[in-house]
């Protein structure tokens, strides 16, 4: 059976140290639907039981992870490689925000290319020799006074941007799914109900302010984003309080 | 010295359990320049040495963290509150992507408002009673097969979007210039006023539905874009109708 075309980038962990961090990175990838992990010379060998313990629920990624001796081998088949690094490194490379990086990778993958993202070892970060293999750098806009993202966090943010770049339904705007909004007639009826009862109750006082008060009240109802159910609640409260009045408290 | 205007949202951890997670959340906040942490009833008390050990480098946030008994107190002064939650909860609330959420909060803060973001306890997530206090929900677009973000990861992604929303100044059209919006404490007071009177009037009936009805009503008030003047109108109507009742119609 032929290999299906790469529909996502490989995430390459270069010389990761603690197994726990590899497991946490696997979880972070799978949180955003990514499952192609590659490892370059993991310090404590492979497989690593501590990675498995931490990965719970995303252990499949570890089983399927490919292990390489060098970064060059790990990215050998890729058409486009980006390196995550917090610090500028004195190498001339295009610098991408995570968002721009994943948009670029998504576009290239749609064009049939293969892509990989490099993540450095926990403390040291990527060596210049690894960064030199990349077409560009991903720089996360962290607080310059505290740029201490760990490996799994860096994977998480990159995976999040991958998902944003590729999910068909990106809710950029506010939605309120399944909500039945009240229509204008229903809002009008509600407004009249309150106006009538408030008139009876003597709310619109003094007389010379009554018209302005009524207009403001109508305006208030019409400005509110009321659902059908909200409208029923407001009717219900008013009816109940009138019943309370009628039975003398 | 007068308090400087809020230039960032407060991040409110509701009933956090392990100290390590509070420390990790502090680090995640400070990675993106956020330093206003609030805690609601931390399980293991406060201060917590495990939180301090984990927060290394961001310990200042823990020293400055404000601790509250209830979520309502923690968000009392906020004009706009969003709740992070993975699951739809059967409450009618606007749903924001992290990006849309932080853009909205950034815009409101530029307009002089105060904002807060709620994060639930590690396992259980936020209770509906907490979510009812929020104006909307933040939903992270995770893999539906593996939606297992932990507390610090959720804080990290939200903080990241805050940084993205604020690192470039995007102009926003000011709507309803000069409007004084009601703050959360004023909305709460209004909500309580209606709840108390409606209780007296026998609105919350039958008994087994009373709690749901109350929660829905609180949720209704918190969803409405009420001005100070609107709040006064609603108080005024209710007071007047009670007077009407008291004088026997």
Automatic annotation (TrEMBL), chains A, B:
EC number(s) in its UniProt entry? 2.1.1.200
Domain of life from the UniProt record: Bacteria
Q: What is this protein called?
A: tRNA (cytidine/uridine-2'-O-)-methyltransferase TrmJ
Organismal lineage: Bacteria, Pseudomonadati, Pseudomonadota, Alphaproteobacteria, Rhodobacterales
Protein purpose: Catalyzes the formation of 2'O-methylated cytidine (Cm32) or 2'O-methylated uridine (Um32) at position 32 in tRNA.
Can you say where in the cell this protein is located?
A: Cytoplasm
Q: Which reaction does it catalyse?
A: cytidine(32) in tRNA + S-adenosyl-L-methionine = 2'-O-methylcytidine(32) in tRNA + S-adenosyl-L-homocysteine + H(+); uridine(32) in tRNA + S-adenosyl-L-methionine = 2'-O-methyluridine(32) in tRNA + S-adenosyl-L-homocysteine + H(+)
What GO terms describe the biological role, i.e. biological process, of this protein? tRNA nucleoside ribose methylation
Q: Which GO terms describe its molecular function?
A: RNA binding; tRNA (cytidine(32)-2'-O)-methyltransferase activity; tRNA (cytidine(32)/uridine(32)-2'-O)-methyltransferase activity
Per UniProt, the keywords (alphabetical) are:
Cytoplasm, Methyltransferase, S-adenosyl-L-methionine, Transferase, tRNA processing
Q: Where is the tRNA/rRNA methyltransferase SpoU type domain?
A: 11-158
Is this entry keyworded Transport? no
- Cross-referenced Gene3D superfamilies, in alphabetical order? 1.10.8.590, 3.40.1280.10
TM ranges: none
Q: Which family does it belong to?
A: Belongs to the class IV-like SAM-binding methyltransferase superfamily. RNA methyltransferase TrmH family.
* Cellular component GO terms held in the UniProt record: cytosol
Q: Which CDD domains match?
A: SpoU-like_TrmJ
Which InterPro entries does the entry link to? Answer: Alpha/beta_knot_MTases, RNA_MeTrfase_TrmJ/LasT, SpoU_MeTrfase, tRNA_m1G_MTases_N
Self-association or partners: how does it assemble? Homodimer.
